[in-house]
Amino acid sequence: MPTDVLARLQDALGASVTTDAAVLDATREDKSGWRSASAPLAVVHAASVDDVQAVMRLAHATGTPVVPRGAGTGLAGGALASTGAIVLDVTRMDRILEVSEADELAVVEPGVLNGDLNAALAPLGLWFAPDPASRAISSIGGNIATNAGGLLCAKYGVTREAVLGLAVVLADGRLLRTGHRTVKGVTGYDLTSLMVGSEGTLGVIVEATLRLRPLTPGDVVTVAAVFPDVEAAAAASAAVTAARIRPAVLELIDAAGLARVAAHLGPVALAGTPLESLAPGEAFLLAQSDGGTADAEAARIGEAFASAGGRVTVSTDAATGERLLAIRRSMHPALAASGQVLIEDVAVPRSRLPEMFRAIEVIGRRHGVEIPTLAHAGDGNLHPNFVFTGDEVPAHVWAAADDMFRTAVALGGTLTGEHGVGILKRRWLADELGEDSFELQRGIKALFDPTGILNPGVMFEASAH
Amino acid sequence: MPTDVLARLQDALGASVTTDAAVLDATREDKSGWRSASAPLAVVHAASVDDVQAVMRLAHATGTPVVPRGAGTGLAGGALASTGAIVLDVTRMDRILEVSEADELAVVEPGVLNGDLNAALAPLGLWFAPDPASRAISSIGGNIATNAGGLLCAKYGVTREAVLGLAVVLADGRLLRTGHRTVKGVTGYDLTSLMVGSEGTLGVIVEATLRLRPLTPGDVVTVAAVFPDVEAAAAASAAVTAARIRPAVLELIDAAGLARVAAHLGPVALAGTPLESLAPGEAFLLAQSDGGTADAEAARIGEAFASAGGRVTVSTDAATGERLLAIRRSMHPALAASGQVLIEDVAVPRSRLPEMFRAIEVIGRRHGVEIPTLAHAGDGNLHPNFVFTGDEVPAHVWAAADDMFRTAVALGGTLTGEHGVGILKRRWLADELGEDSFELQRGIKALFDPTGILNPGVMFEASAH
To answer: Which of A63, A280, B138, B410 is the most buried (most CB within 10 A)?
Structure first.
């Protein structure tokens, strides 16, 4: 059967089908550090909706699993090759099909990189707000498939709020259109939102109609501070929310993370920043205000930080702001310099951030592992990191992660704020959702993908057919 | 069987069950002007989640249809009594269960009125942004069931964007919890968004976790103008969007509507407003700017209005602003003074507003009916109105509405922007969605409500079981 599928695939799609070992091998990984057990049957580089439909029709007819894949920057193993599967790569579908200034929308193919779209929009004074930290390398299709978040979500929303409509190739190859080109629209159930975050398990996104925003006018003001400990920093972030301030960015780094960042950047890069005279145990908090009232807002944030015990730097010039933000941006490179990094992604209600930080410390001690943590403090989304050596995530790391997920859910939170479930977190899915929701979700999966060929093993354990 | 159901209902729910003829009769109507053919079997005034679960268990066991109903202010016939049905009235479930200032969220029962919630939140400096024009009389449960819009959506979003999570009683009485208390959360499919706008056909909303915003600081500035014709007004609204301005409110009234409003309000109320010297054919456009940069934004809007040929009034004091907004608010009372009003609800991409206004004029002439029209111009949502006498919508009005829906869809729009499908628009649902989407939506309905007892006839034609 596999040989037959491959022959039919090559017959239908010609040179778009690759069996080159290096290309196949590359689809076994994403940016999670996870590596799948085996290579796929083939990779198809789809260049059009027709290509995607041809692949799905053939997969449907032959019962072949299909793994939709974009730029491969996922952090949860949501687009990894598996035995006998076709990896349906849409990175060549990278055209911006339309930008309507009058309607403030763009129609794009799934392979367009987030950063490339925004580079094209900026001269028009427009902006696609979802800004995952990966925006320079991640594609819009993947942003939508995971409902990607980022640094700006508390003020500007997550990906779902910026998607007006989709074109999706269904499991049997039919083309479904969802949503609208209008701001409002309530005809029928919201299939667009159902597709956003569905991680390639319900269909293959081949086109997206995106809601744009006017670029926020005025300069950005950056407020950075160092606090005696992470709880003081968390308290300062809570004080900002309590003062009814909603900055564009509010990012927190704990002591373990900050020490690594400081060591990685070195004294020259840190001169003049609050990290210049870093003491052990100190934590970092950075806010950015934008829009016409940025100066006044940043002043209030600075006061809140100082009242909570912070050593504060306020910067109105862009270059200094960038240097301060570079501290935040260096977190992942600093960790990656010393090993493999498993980035976790829990979220808790903002008020529970101090408790969650305390819990992470306790969990780290219990399992004998350091857990340097970064948080999008403005929206309660934490990225606790595990650094390890070797190809496999060690058992004690998974045990610590398990503790952490359960703690987040017990605090009213969730096991994934923005990365998705993928294969890495599927074992905890039912725990968080509860049995009734889990069964309904499986029912939705079965409705859209009755033979289970779409990204099997992602979100749900693969079932036998 | 009905007698048996009623006896069992009374046995289970006691005095919460009403068979009083006047109470039953009142559930045959909403604010659409539509009246259902018959009264229900009974009305249950549920006071708790337990009550709702008891009703659904009994309905499930006996195959009895259930019509979930809130304040009864719907405009699409989405909550009307039918023969043999139990009307499940949740207006007594009207408690605000929790307001978390730290997490900027509220947990409420479905019967809380939108206006009452905001009155309770205002002293805390917080705000539930969805603001349907009915906010003083409509309930949160209904706002969610229809994904209600309103005047502020282009800037502040629709109801869906303000709902973090729900508790929903399923068709068989089980209690489902969806969503999160966190800003971000991507564990599994987005069942919360699936429930928002589902018009009581997938479950009964018994609790909602709502996302709040800080009250926008500063004064509101109002810019009102009268234009020679509706196309000039539509062009002015497009010029505002093109200038990358996103006012909080941007409302348009066409000539037919404006003439009725002016006659209704009378010269005293209009003194000092742009309607003081209204000429035939003139149209009205009103913008409101808020936030710290309201003055500068309003000045730019005033310039755009003047450039497009408007006679402009800018008002920074609240009392004058209210008088100007009263012109917009008088549209429905002005129409209702002369007959029954069927309020339609199409939406088009903003750039197509002038075309849609032209088409409405042509359609009116073709069918010999005046169609006074109001538009949320900032988001392309139009409310063309039909005024008629008698209980039944006349055939020529439905014919004109049919023309209008098809035109809106042909312009890339939708037949309902914010009111919902209900029973009034179900006949056009498949036309807009297309066959594949329609079938998937019916599949979702069947998954959540396999025996078809939840609000039968709403959104989809009732099928025999």
So the answer is: B138
- Please list the helix, strand and coil fractions of chain A in percent, rounded to the nearest 5, in that order: 40, 20, 40
Q: What is the CATH number of domain B217-336?
A: 3.30.70.2190
Q: Name residues 206-225 of chain B within 8 A of A (Cβ).
A: 213-215
- Does the beta-carbon distance from A183 to B126 stay under 8 Å? no
Kindly provide the ipTM of the predicted complex, given to two decimals. 0.96
As assigned by CATH, the class of the B96-214 domain is: alpha beta
Q: How many whole angstroms separate alpha carbon B462 and alpha carbon B465?
A: 9
Q: Are A347 and B432 within 8 A, CB to CB?
A: no
Contact B180, A197 (CB under 8 A): no
Nearest residue of chain B to residue A184 (CA atoms): B417
Note down pLDDT in tens along chain A; length 465 residues. 456 999 999 999 999 999 999 999 999 999 998 899 999 999 999 999 999 999 999 999 999 999 999 999 999 999 999 999 999 999 999 999 999 999 999 999 999 999 999 999 999 999 999 999 999 999 999 999 999 999 999 899 999 999 999 999 999 999 999 999 998 999 999 999 999 999 999 999 999 999 999 999 889 999 999 999 999 999 999 999 889 999 999 999 999 999 999 999 999 999 989 899 999 999 999 999 999 899 999 999 999 999 999 999 999 998 999 999 999 999 999 999 999 999 999 999 999 999 999 999 999 999 999 999 999 999 999 999 999 998 888 999 999 999 999 999 999 999 999 999 999 999 999 999 999 999 999 999 999 999 999 999 999 997 644
Instruction: Specify the fold of A2-89.
Output: 3.30.43
**CB proximity list for A303: less than 8 A, separation 6 or greater:** none
Cβ-Cβ pairs closer than 8 A, A with B, add up to: 260
Nearest to B186 among A104, A197, A245 (CB): A197
CA distance to partner chain A, nearest, from residue B418 (Å): 6
Burial code (b: 16+ CB inside 10 Å, e: under 16) for A429-456 equals bbebbeeebbebbbebbeebbeebbbbb
Kindly report the three-state secondary structure assignment for every residue of A257-291: HHHHHHHHHHHHHHCCCCCCCCCCCCEEEEEEECC
Q: Which of residues 25-84 of B touch A (CB under 8 A)?
A: none
CB of B147 less than 8 A from some CB of A: yes
Is A146 part of the contact surface with chain B (CB cutoff 8 Å)? yes
The answer to whether B326 contacts chain A (CB < 8 Å) is no
Interface contact flag, A182 B438, Cβ < 8 Å:
no
Question: Closest approach of chain B CAs to the CA of A265, in angstroms?
Answer: 30
What CATH topology corresponds to A221-410? Vanillyl-alcohol Oxidase; Chain A, domain 3 (3.40.462)
Name every chain A residue with its beta carbon within 8 A of the beta carbon of B189.
194, 197-198, 202, 441, 444
How distant, in Å, are the alpha carbons of A243, B90, B157 from that of B120? 18, 20, 21
Amino acid at A233: A
Boundaries of every domain in chain A: 2-89, 96-214, 221-410
The total of other beta-carbon atoms located within 10 Å of residue A55's CB is 26
Give the list of residues 6+ apart from residue A453 with CB closer than 8 angstroms, or none: A59, A60, A63, A64, A65, A66, A171
**Contact indicator for B348, A182 with CB cutoff of 8 Å:** yes
B339-427: CATH number:
3.30.70.2740
A133 touches chain B (CB under 8 A): no
CA distance A220 to B232: 37
Q: Say if B377 is an interface residue toward chain A (CB within 8 Å).
A: no
The structure tokens listed for B449 are 């409500």
Which tokens in the block code for residue B361? 């004029």
